[in-house]
Amino acid sequence: MSSDKPTLRPETLDAFHxxxxxxxxxxxxxxRSGADAMxxxxxxxxxxxxxxxxxxxxxxxxxxxxxxxxxxxxVTLVERSPxxxxxxxxxxxxxxxxxxxxxxxxxxxxxxxxxxxRVAAGLPDHSFDHVIMNPPFNNADDRTTPDxxxxxxxxxxxxxxxxxxxxxxxxxxxxxxxxxxxxxxxVSEIIAACGKRFGGIEMTLIHPRPDADATRILVTAIKxxxxxxxxxxxxxxxxxxxxxxxERADSLNNGRTAYARRTSRQARVTxx
Length: 272
Known about the structure:
Blueprint: E1 11-16, E2 21-26, H1 35-42, E3 50-55, H2 61-69, E4 73-79, H3 82-92, E5 104-108, H4 115-120, E6 128-133, H5 148-154, H6 160-171, E7 172-182, H7 187-194, E8 198-207, E9 216-223, E10 230-231, E11 235-236, H8 247-253
Parallel strand pairs: 3-4, 3-6, 4-5, 6-7, 8-10, 8-11
Antiparallel strand pairs: 1-2, 7-9, 8-9
InterPro entries: DNA_methylase_N6_adenine_CS, SAM-dependent_MTases_sf, Small_mtfrase_dom, tRNA_Adenine-N(6)_MTase
Pfam families: MTS
Protein name: Methyltransferase
């Protein structure tokens, strides 16, 4: 006998910023947000009214974390996958998120669209003060997962940073900020993709522990800036023993503080 009931996917309701907002995420498939998303969100440090685009937002954790910490932030979650966009919409609509729901919207669109197709999808030129992104980070030669959703979220393709930063450059206002988190081995591709679009690049290597190699890199840059590249002091997440976050990492992870740029956002900006 067949059933008319829809097949329900297993999912979890996860609390972030010590319960200040919640996110619905697929269980056992797809990309699940955690510390990476919270560290990415911490890069948005501008007070007052600000428009933010979270490209490749998944279920929306990073963008919602920005809205959670900054009361003046209007955030657009941009996600290509219909399934993950649905998770984002349902997350925003949760009763636990009522205090920020009117400042967060979801847009189902492909980040790599160009020209008129991108504008028609809802991403016009010069429309956001800040763009954040956590692009797929696994090399295509790495062992792939049989989970299609996770593979799409994690698998890097040739020209990925160029395509994503091309969109970021188009939709960001002059003097606006780009922020991303990636693997350290992507440094050269990121710098190349910034090109003449973004300057004043600041990079911070993230180490799980003081004696461990870096596993992530935080990157910020300013559209039109001519300032030079800065490598900042490394950020350590945990101490030599145990899994608890160190005080600074815990503050960033839980939205108590921002990881502000060292240099002014408007320093040496040229209109492009």
